[in-house]
Design brief:
heterodimer; A: 242 residues; alpha/beta; 4-stranded antiparallel sheet; 28% strand; globular; B: 405 residues; alpha+beta; 2 domains; 6-stranded mixed beta barrel; two-stranded antiparallel sheet; 13 helices; 12 strands; 55% helix; elongated
Chain lengths: 242, 405
């Protein structure tokens, strides 16, 4: 481990256990992980291996039972709920498998949501949300509601929403899990473009060919890291027009 | 921002929002209608008290017993003009005094005739009874001294003796076959609290009645003494002073039965007013309960809404909504629902109380206070019943909320 830049994410001895009735389920077991700025990291593993729990902890949605987690040098383990909320708002963008867009709400308003909670002036909100939608190749669909959009388009809206506040970290939980293979390639190409622009991405997947698009792959089993490989990413090819 | 979010959420479920509001609409509407009916009834009673003459006391002679038959109050001829004058002079709490004799008699004008109460009254009668003129003039002390044949008519008598548009002033009517000139018409006074038509009367000077019309077994006896207290709070003092004076004048021994009775009309009216106030309070309680039920309806819908939108709350939290954002969103939803419901309820209440007064003929009175109170109460209902669901929403765990199916 000889990264020259200070890691953006730094996880030490991180554990997360759940009480399920009388038994105790250990989802993460003393994980150590550093992610440098600008890395595109794929986290692989079977379901129940702890990869999603890691993503939730990294995204400040969940708190570790033990261990430390530093984001950009700052220990976030003991932040209050509200402090974690504003950290999620400013520093982290989420992309989910099931898109998690607000139903019956236009694409534009979905993208505006983080700006609303970030206290961005309302005049600026619309402008920035439009720009974000443009940057993911969704022009002219501002006023479509999610049910009027295809899966790939919905995921682009979600990505625009994740990026609209210019976060330093994009977290993706099986972003292509609900998409067909050609749409998946489009989304992965978008991720690679964002990666080239310097965004740090952590993507959870259980498919090896999806993970192949990342620059580094970490594999989980039973809450522990079993392998950590840097690789030359497979190019998803030219981004098809949306 | 939060308000916009809340409004959008309400718009998304128009029917549900409308139905939720309905509870508050009906509650607030009911409050307004009930209060307006209650206040209208109180005001009507108060108007009746005014019409009776505020501060009015009446003295009636006692009962007589003739051949074992007791006559009831007013049967005896124990009260005299001198008694009345003495009350006026000696009772400090009495500001005015008048007396009268009365009898039911036939009055005739042209081809029309009517049976009415003929009152022979002292000139102060009108002032003491607080009874203004509609037209013409009262009779004065000169008419009293000379036993003039002049008469002042009540409205009911005017209606029954004269055609519409006919001016009774200057006309000659016959009271018990004695001709009288009409010099004044009294304003309508309405019914007493016990339903007697006060306008069904003609008033002639006391002396004229005594000497020319009604006659008297003993000159100078009266059927009724009216006295007005200086101020309404002096009513009790006046009553006591009068009773004491009359006992002295009639030489009634300590512990002996009075041969007169003093009646305080205000007491009866007040009793009626307090009855109508009890009624109003009761109605208000019923209305408040319906508002409470409306509030519980809001809470119920919001709780359902929180459960239904758990995922939405999770998404909002994931993109950086703080607890207070979520709390406020649901609270604003509740307040908007109850506030809008309150406004609609006020409109409904105003319309309904108008309808009540026009269709049912009940007097209603709408006060700014009741409208404002109902609005504030409905907003408070929103806050109180919205708080728990809102807190539940804000307290959700982001992950659990996101995973909620």
């Amino acid at each position: 481990m000889t990264e020259s830049p200070a890691p953006l994410l730094s996880v030490r001895e991180l554990s997360r256990a759940y009480e399920a009735g009388a038994s105790r389920v250990v989802a993460l077991d003393a994980v150590d992980l550093d992610v440098a700025p600008g890395e595109f990291l794929a986290v692989m593993g079977a379901s129940g291996s702890g990869k999603s729990t890691l993503l939730h902890v990294l995204g400040c949605l969940d708190r570790p039972t033990r261990g430390s987690y530093r984001l950009a040098g700052r220990d976030v383990a003991d932040l209050s709920a509200d402090e974690r909320a504003s950290l999620r708002n400013r520093e982290i963008g989420f992309v989910f498998q099931s898109f998690n867009l607000m139903p019956r709400t236009s694409a534009l308003e979905n993208v505006e949501l983080p700006l609303v909670y970030g206290g961005v002036p309302s005049g600026e909100q619309r402008e920035r949300a439009r720009a974000a939608l443009r940057s993911v190749g969704l022009e002219g669909r501002d006023h479509h509601v999610p049910s009027q959009l295809s899966g790939g388009q919905q995921q682009r809206v979600a990505i625009a929403r994740a990026l609209v506040n210019h976060p330093s970290l994009l977290l993706a939980d099986e972003p292509t899990g609900n998409l067909d293979s050609s749409t998946s390639r489009e989304i992965l190409a978008l991720f690679q473009r964002l990666h080239r622009q310097g965004l740090t991405i952590v993507m959870v997947t259980h498919e090896a060919d999806v993970a192949a698009h990342a620059s580094r792959v970490v594999s989980f089993r039973d809450g522990r890291i079993v392998s950590d490989v840097r690789q030359a990413p497979v190019e998803a090819g030219a981004e098809a027009a949306a | 921002m939060t308000a916009r979010t809340a409004l959008r959420a309400l718009r998304r479920n128009k029917l549900r929002s409308a139905l939720t509001m309905l509870g508050v609409v009906i509650g607030v509407g009911a409050v307004i209608v009930m209060v307006s009916i209650g206040q209208g009834a109180s005001a009507a009673v108060r108007a009746q008290i005014e019409a009776l003459g505020t501060n009015l006391l009446m003295v009636l002679p006692g009962a007589t017993t003739r051949a074992g038959v007791r006559s009831g109050w007013g049967g005896a001829t124990t009260l005299t003009v001198q008694d009345a004058r003495a009350i006026g002079e000696e009772c400090s709490a009495v500001s005015g005094v008048a007396w009268s004799r009365r009898q039911i008699a036939q009055v005739i004008q042209g081809e029309l005739n009517w049976s009415t109460q003929v009152q022979g009254a002292s000139p102060a009668y009108f002032a003491v009874r607080n009874w203004p003129l509609a037209s013409g003039e009262y009779f004065g002390s000169r008419d009293e001294e000379t036993a003039n044949r002049v008469v002042v008519l009540g409205q009911t008598v005017v209606e029954n003796l004269f055609g519409p548009g006919e001016d009774p002033l200057g006309a000659v009517i016959r009271v018990k076959d004695v001709p009288f000139r009409v010099i004044g018409v009294l304003e309508r006074k309405g019914q007493t609290t016990w339903g007697q038509d006060q306008d069904d009367t003609v008033v002639i000077p006391f002396s004229t009645a005594e000497r020319r019309v009604l006659g008297a077994e003993i000159l100078g006896t009266v059927d009724l003494i009216f006295a007005s207290a200086t101020r309404s709070q002096d009513l009790l003092a006046a009553e006591e002073q009068m009773a004491t004076l009359l006992r002295q004048r009639h030489r009634i021994a300590e512990g002996g039965d009075d041969d007169f009775t003093v009646r305080n009309l205000n007491d009866m009216a007040r009793a009626q007013e307090s009855t109508s106030q009890v009624m109003a309070t009761l109605l208000l309680c019923v209305a408040a309960i319906s508002l409470l039920v409306g509030g519980i309806g809001i809470m119920n819908i919001l709780l359902v809404s929180v459960t239904e939108r758990t995922r939405e709350i999770g998404i909002r939290m994931a993109v950086g909504a703080k607890r207070r954002h979520i709390l406020l969103q649901f609270l604003v939803e509740a307040v908007v629902l109850s506030g809008a419901g309150g406004l609609l309820g006020v409109a409904l209440g105003l319309a309904a109380s108008r309808a009540v007064s026009e269709l049912a003929g009940w007097p209603t009175l709408i006060s700014a206070g009741s409208v404002l109170g109902a609005l504030l109460f409905s907003a408070a209902v929103g806050i109180v019943f919205g708080f728990w669901p809102a807190r539940r929403a804000a307290g959700l765990d982001p992950i659990a909320a996101l995973r909620y199916e």
